[in-house]
Amino acid sequence: MHVFVAGGTGYLGRPLIERLLNKGQSVRALVRHGSEHKLPRDAEPVYERNVAGCDTFVHLIGVPRPSPLKARQFREIDLPQALASIEAARLSSAKPGGIRHFVYVSVAQPAPIMRAYIEVRQQCERALIQSGMPHTILRPWYVLGPGHWRPYALKPVYRLMEAIPATRDSALRLGLVTHAQMINALEWAVLNPPAFNSQALNTPARILSVADIRTYTSAQTA
């Protein structure tokens, strides 16, 4: 498998690349000049979306530490970067040996906050669907991990909401996932592209919710 990763030096990108390299996969990563040293040693750094020879595209570029105060950044950075990745992959997918699977990290929805963030992710999801490429969309809400521990204080609140029938669905849909769970789910998604279904007329696609992300453990990706 030859994987192209946009956002390979970030919170999710670097550990995902390490996992893929350890599994014997080939990885090419989009980086900015001067950030090459942040990649795992055996990843190939590139400075544009040169996806020739790659069969899987993973898009992880996004504004760090999303908050309602970053609505403008979501529209000016996240949106055009994702659309550029989708278009590069779409053009490649029309060629023999081109991209055959696109993996995109979106966000859990609907939700009462982060509306601009969700709107941008929804727009990118629509573009991905319209591209006609087989794809996997992951929809976490908040990824707990190094430097992202503060929401742990909300865990008792989540447990209470999950126990109340009126709030259970929302609590599960907008639940917390760990960094390890997210990397496991991404690795699983890359190594297990959605298969064509002879009974279906639409493009092979799947959406992994918070509950799905929690289920993909290291044992499943081994």
Output the keywords:
222 residues, alpha/beta, Rossmann fold, seven-stranded parallel β-sheet, two-stranded parallel sheet, 16% strand
Explained architecture:
By secondary structure, the protein is an alpha/beta fold. It has one domain (2-142, 177-221): NAD(P)-binding Rossmann-like Domain (Rossmann fold), CATH 3.40.50. Helices cover 41% and strands 16% of the residues. It has 8 helices and 9 strands. The strands form 2 sheets. The chain has a 7-stranded parallel beta sheet, sandwiched between helices. Helix 1 (13-22) crosses helix 6, helix 2 (71-93) packs parallel to helix 3 and helix 4 (155-163) packs across helix 5 (165-173). The radius of gyration is 17 Å and the shape is globular. The model has no long low-confidence stretch (mean pLDDT 90).
SSE diagram, text form:
Layout: E1 2-6, H1 13-22, E2 26-30, E3 44-46, E4 56-59, H2 71-93, E5 101-105, H3 115-131, E6 135-138, E7 142-144, H4 155-163, H5 165-173, E8 176-178, H6 179-191, E9 205-208, H7 210-215, H8 218-221
Parallel strand pairs: 1-2, 1-4, 2-3, 4-5, 5-6, 6-9, 7-8
Helix pairs in contact: 1-6, 2-3, 4-5
Concise account of the structure shown:
The protein is of the alpha/beta class and 222 residues long. The chain is built from eight helices and nine strands. The longest helix is centred in the middle third of the chain and has 23 residues, at 71-93.
As laid out across the biggest beta sheet, the strand order is 3-2-1-4-5-6-9
**Strand segment count:** 9
Q: From the structure provided, what is the oligomeric state, counting identical versus distinct chains?
A: single chain
Average pLDDT metric: 90
CATH architecture: 3-Layer(aba) Sandwich
Shape summary: globular
Helix content: 40-55%
Distance between the termini: 16 Å
The CATH homologous superfamily is termed: NAD(P)-binding Rossmann-like Domain
Number of helices: 8
Strand % is 15-25%
- Spans where pLDDT lies below 50 across 5 or more residues: none
Tell me the number of structural domains: 1
Structure class: alpha/beta
- What is the N-to-C order of secondary-structure elements (H for helix, E for strand)? EHEEEHEHEEHHEHEHH
Largest sheet: 7 strands, parallel
- Rg calc: 17 Å
CATH topology: Rossmann fold
Q: For this structure, what is the CATH class?
A: Alpha Beta
